[in-house]
Amino acid sequence: MTHLFRLTTHFIKPTTLQFYKQRAMSTSATHNHLTDDCIFCKIIRKEIPSFKLIETEKSYAFMDIEPLSEGHSLVIPKYHAEFMHQVPDEYLADVMPIAKKIAAAGGFAQYNVLQNNGPLANQAVPHVHFHVIPKPDKETGLGVRWNVQKKPMDEIKAMYERMKEKLSLQLNQKRVYPLAFQHQLKQQQRHGLPLSQTTMVQRRPLSIWTIPKIILATQGKKSRGLILGTLGAATFLSSFLGPVVWVTVGGAASLASWRLFRKAKSWWNYLTPSKPDVDTISNNSQEPSFAQALLSRIGTHHAEELVRTEAIKSLKSYFETSSKGKQVLEEFGLDHPRDLVWEDVHRSETVRLDGGKKHRVSVNFWLEDQASKGPKGGSCEVIASALVSGQGNIDLEQVKLSSPDWHEDEVISLA
């Protein structure tokens, strides 16, 4: 027993605990985001030695061995990506405080913080990294060539409008996936990481029993007895009248559902324009019935799904057969279209043509590729339009890919 105590004493010393804490941090699950053939990833995994300055859960800082000036340092995220817009926000948020500490510790009077993206932008290692470069004099440190271009204000304004529109789309299309969030929470709890409070706001669902609780909480003592008595009487009566009511309501609902199902087979006859014409509004002043509104919604949903399915088929064929499609797939950083994830339709529009004989249905849905390392990795929006004629025939007109991170949309050839 004495020997066992002596053996365990070494492991409970503060210095020993700190050593194993640092070791666990450097070999944790963050290495899942690294690659095998990147020099910076090897430095993070300690496979290549370095003059480490600071290491956190999401960042690693060390001295540059080919410095532009004394004190030249690098800060890299523990997430392999070639371009900055591919790095998650939580990793980027960890970089600047470290760069600030390095500049303060070095006592740099003047310095540059540099980050390059792509070979044309002088990026030497295809792993996002930030330089902290002291500038002690004009000759030492970073030399910047700043060629100012004279641009008309109209061109600047046009570029401003395009960027503003793309930024607005990027901010407004922020989506939350509950399943992915729950998985993230489980991973964070499993590895003992702090839970993020800003990812999603959890709300308690409103149930039928929440309403009496709210009423009782806002009423006086005299009214509470009346409310509780009324609820008790309603519960007692419902135990006798409930079965009769449910059988009657269920039979009527089944009959109505069967009739709607038979009509919904000819769904193309119930397509309704997203923006009704002025003539249609003036001729049909009456509000549509519940059955008409339901059939219209069924027809629109069916048309959306068919157009989405045809667009996905065309995109898969485009990626697999055409040279341009294979080039686009390489820019996604993928080998096969099956690695892509096709989301549901999140926006659609229906336009009536030829007096209602045809309809043009346009749909928007997301194409996800979160694991890609290419310049077009991440996600993009698929915009497809098709003509829907009698008997539900779908004639695809146009399919294009769009993303706020791209310079221009990718129009898919349907030939």
From TrEMBL:
Annotated active site: 129
PANTHER family in alphabetical order: ADENOSINE 5'-MONOPHOSPHORAMIDASE HNT1, HIT FAMILY PROTEIN 1
Motif Histidine triad motif, chain ranges: 127-131
Protein name (database record): HIT-like protein
GO molecular function per UniProt: catalytic activity
Domain (HIT) ranges: 39-142
UniProt-listed PROSITE patterns: HIT_1, HIT_2
Annotated SUPFAM superfamilies: HIT-like
Gene3D superfamilies xrefs: HIT-like (3.30.428.10)
Biological processes annotated in GO: nucleotide metabolic process
Family matches, as InterPro entries: HINT, Histidine_triad_CS, Histidine_triad_HIT, HIT-like, HIT-like_sf
Superkingdom of this protein's organism: Eukaryota
